[in-house]
Amino acid sequence: MAAAASVPVRVCHQEIVKFDLEIKAAVQDIRDCPGPLSALTELNAAVKEKFHHLRGRIQELEQMAKEQDKESEKQALLREVENHKKQMLSNQAAWRKANLACKIAIDNSEKDQLLHGRDSLRQRKTTKESLAESASNITESLMSISRMMSQQVQQSEETVQTLANSSRTILEANEEFKSMSGTIQLGRKLITKYNRRELTDKLLIFLALALFLATVLYILKKRLFPFL
Q1: How far is CA 185 from the centre of its chain?
Q2: What are the CA-CA distances from residue 21 to residues 24, 56, 96 (Å)?
Q3: Where would one find coiled-coil regions in this protein (predicted)?
Q4: pLDDT digits (tens, 9 = 90+) for 140-165
Q5: What dihedral angle (degrees, nearest 10) is formed by the CA atoms of 131, 134, 136, 140?
Q6: Distance (Å, rounded) from C-alpha 63 to C-alpha 70?
Q7: What domains sit in the chain, N to C, each tagged with a CATH number?
Q8: Phi/psi of residue 69, each to 5°?
Q9: Residues 159, 164, 167, CA angle at the centre, nearest 5°?
Q10: What is the chain's mean pLDDT, rounded?
């Protein structure tokens, strides 16, 4: 291999492959570009720069091929150079097609935006009318809600009054219950006292009866058995 080559053949191959892949990726970006035209211009500038570098590397590889000492190596490198040139031409064709498709898409998008702008004006007019009608409906709804709230407040006041009356009734019933409880306790004490008194009376009656019987027995004994 001649020493006049600017970069080694292997490195030159690697750079050609790298630029080829980068160009393919950039062409795909152009195909997918949604716009605007300024974005497409920036992408095209980047692709042009990559083609410039790729073309320079292919020329360097071609020069290296011509400087080869062995004819077989020379022809092999020249065939590779020819393949790289064909690939570069294919990328250029794909680039042009991607630009054409992107420009058509951007034009269609701009037309749609213009049509949408007109529709938007009509929609704004319709929206204003709808807003006015909605505002009227909202006002009526608010007035209805206000009336309902007023009724609810009145019902709440009546409920509070009913609860207050119920509370007073419960308090009065509680007082009556306390009074009845005192009366019941007093009656219970009286009953207990009466039961005790009844027991005492029974005991006294029993003692009196026993004394009476003892007296009768004593008198009978004296009369019937005086000698005892």
Answers
A1: 66
A2: 5, 16, 17
A3: 44-87
A4: 767 766 676 777 767 767 777 877 77
A5: -160
A6: 14
A7: 1-115 (1.20.58.400)
A8: -80, -40
A9: 125
A10: 83
Joined tokens for residue 107: 């034009």
Q: Can you give 122-190 as a three-state secondary structure string?
A: HHHHHHHHHHHHHHHHHHHHHHHHHHHHHHHHHHHHHHHHHHHHHHHHHHHHHHHHHHHHHHHHHHHHH
Two tokens, residue 141: 């709804």
Number of helices and strands in the chain (H, E): 3, 0
**For residue 100, what pLDDT band results from cuts at 50, 70 and 90?**
very high
Q: Give the pTM.
A: 0.47
Residue with tokens 């409880």: 181
CB 98 within 8 A of CB 29: no
Contact present, 19 and 57 (Cβ < 8 Å): yes
Structure token digits, residue 45? 């500038």
Place of tokens 């020069």: 63
Which amino acid, one-letter code, is at 147? R
- Render 51-75 in DSSP notation, one character per residue: HHHHHHHHHHHHHHHHT-SSHHHHH
Q: What distance in Å separates the CA atoms of residue 85 and residue 87, rounded to the nearest whole number?
A: 5
Residues sharing a CB contact under 8 Å with residue 40, sequence separation 6 or more, in sequence order: 30, 33, 99, 102, 103, 106
Q: Measured between alpha carbons, how far is 223 from 213 in angstroms, rounded to an integer?
A: 15
Sequence length of the chain is 228
